Amino acid sequence: MRPTHISLAVLVAAVWGVNFTVIEVGLDHFPPLLFSALRFLVAALPAVFFVGRPKVAWKWIVTVGLVLGVAKFGLLFIGMDAGMPAGLSSLVIQIQAVFTALFAIAFLGERLTRVRLLGMAVALCGVGLAAVDEGTAGPVGAFALVMVAAACWGVSNVLTRKASPPDPLNFMVWVSTVPVLPLLGLSLLTEGPSRDLDALRALDWQGASVVVYVAWITTVFGFGAWGWLLHRHPASTVAPFSLLVPVFGMSSAALFLGETISPLRWGAAALLVGGVGLTSVVRRPGAGGKPGVAGESGVGEAKPRARGASPSRARADVSS
Question: What is the pLDDT of residue 319?
Fold first, then answer.
């Protein structure tokens, strides 16, 4: 990779990591479900008018939109609103790579190699350490919500692989149109219209900036830049940069929110990131046994190239 491309990959990882700190700030301005609805509304508009028509069947757009947008992000925002720290959330959510691997083995027929099994075990040990650390400092229920959100992310990754969108940005923008109304409806039912209206009436520059960041910077720019890199480099080259996401997430939370990072949490981070890296290693057919990388967050997989065809394009299973 060129130095400029490496810088762009690191920048995207930083954007996605800092996103958790921005979410924490946004939850001071909006109820969690309303905040999530605004994120997808602003991500979809006006981008949906510029990315062209959907390039996959609507069943995939709707299904991924509900699982990723409503279930995953709804639970993540609720969990963080209930007390899950931003830095720890950016770390624990990475266990989605283990869920993705398990669901891919169960429903896509992928193989469970010894390396992937070791990676799952190491990552789960990291989650266990993080749970012990959080159990002494915060609500365990909020921790559990983020874990369930990670499982939903894993489901959405498998669905995305089945959909095989040729244009990740086009796919993500159209997916963003789906959760808006369900999230608004759930917000009205559970958070109440008065609370939602109060939050919208009190909207200030900071609240607006937070929505713009989580919508346009993390979604439109992040997915656009990551897709651009995946179209120019093998997925196994680009994917490892996604392991920097929790590093930036924990660092930005410590810097801007004053969150402390205990030695136990550092240990959890080392185990979880290392385990995710191992879990994401798969063997690509026809690649001479050389490992490729697949999974999440930001980890894609390369499609095999047909003889005489142009170089394959990698697809991303990324959300943040």
Answer: 53
Predicted confidence (pLDDT) per residue in 59-80, tens digit? 999 999 999 999 999 999 999 9
| 37-46, 64-73, 310-319: least confident range | 310-319
Q: Are 172 and 56 in contact (CB under 8 A)?
A: no
Domains of the chain, residue spans? 3-316
Buried b or exposed e, range 92-122, using 16+ CB within 10 angstroms: bbbbbbbbbbbbbeeeeebeeeeebeebbeb
Rounded Cα gap, residues 178 and 188, in angstroms: 17
Structure tokens at 266: 């550092």
pLDDT tens readout for residues 200-240: 999 999 999 999 999 999 989 998 898 888 888 877 678 77
pTM for the structure as a whole: 0.85
pLDDT of residue 140: 82
